[in-house]
Amino acid sequence: MECDPIGTAHTPFETTSEAPRQGFHEDAAGVVELVPAAREGLTGFDADRVVVVWWADRADRSVLTLARDPERGVFTSRSPARPNPVCISECRVDAVDAEAGRLDLRGVDMADGSPVIDLKATVDVQCWTDDST
Amino acid sequence: MECDPIGTAHTPFETTSEAPRQGFHEDAAGVVELVPAAREGLTGFDADRVVVVWWADRADRSVLTLARDPERGVFTSRSPARPNPVCISECRVDAVDAEAGRLDLRGVDMADGSPVIDLKATVDVQCWTDDST
Fold first, then answer.
1. Strands A65-66 and A69-73
2. What digits encode the pLDDT tens for the residues A61-110?
3. Pick from A78, B22, B30, B59: CA 20 to 30 A from residue B110's CA?
4. B88 to chain A, minimum CA–CA distance in Å?
5. Beta strand A102-106 with A29-34: parallel, antiparallel or unpaired?
6. Cα distance from B28 to chain A (closest Cα, Å)?
């Protein structure tokens, strides 16, 4: 299954290990910039929060247990090191420019320059929207 | 970016459109079965909930707006139709057999037979675990 990047994450974090653990540094600001071909997908976007699905392209895909605790498998964790380094970050939306394909976000934890593969608007921090049609 | 399936979802839903909207039919039961090569990743798994990341392999990847409302882009929704049909389903965990690579789940909405590309344990319905190391 081949994923094509729909955009790129711009954040203050050079590497994934520098990124804050989720829930900390809620104010870290970042930007997701979509490629022109994907921008139409932002039409009518007005959500306060968004799930950013991104690809940790520097992660070690060969490991199945955690380096710091070999008694725990990678699926017990959110470490980017895993067979398919698909990461999920729920962020607050500060501003959207659908035409420019730009989202200004808060609460980011993506590594700078990571490919973004999907975006899903959310209704609030507890509950996703119900559009699985 | 190439994703390799780590397993398969077995659910009562033949197609994605039959699957319940999230939050409905919370009791729908399903199973995720991991391929032998990925099973070690379940070591020590004891969470009550899990985020199942799966690939909607029958979804239309060519659309950027919703069929039922062209004023809304796919990124405003959770429709599986989108450039990269990566879907996210948070499920309750009824039982885990790490050795057999099997998770018995409730609250599934995956289409039967869909490839699973990742699993992430969660601490509860509101809050994901903090293992972004």
1. antiparallel
2. 999 999 999 999 999 998 999 999 999 999 999 999 999 999 999 999 99
3. A78
4. 9
5. antiparallel
6. 15
* Rounded mean pLDDT, A36-45: 97
CA distances for B2 relative to A14, A44, A86, A117, angstroms = 23, 30, 11, 12
Q: Which of B23, B57, B76 sits opposite A47 (nearest CB)?
A: B76
Q: B68 and A133: CB-CB below 8 Å?
A: yes
Q: How far does the CA of residue A116 sit from the closest CA of chain B (Å)? A: 10
The answer to whether the CB atoms of B44 and A76 lie below 8 A apart is yes
Q: Pseudo-torsion of CA B3, B6, B11, B14, nearest 10°?
A: 40
Burial classification of residue A68, based on how many CB atoms lie within 10 Å of its CB (0-12 exposed, 13-18 middle, 19 or more buried): exposed
Looking at residue A130, what is its pLDDT?
40
CB contact under 8 Å between B3 and A86, yes or no, is: yes
**Distance between CA A53 and CA A18 in Å, rounded?**
18
Of A20, A82, A131, the CB nearest to B78: A131
Q: With 60 as the cut, is the pLDDT of residue A125 above it?
A: no
Q: In chain B, which residue's Cα lies nearest the Cα of A132?
A: B79
Pick the closest to residue A75 from B106, B100, B117, B4 (CA basis).
B117
ipTM for this model: 0.88
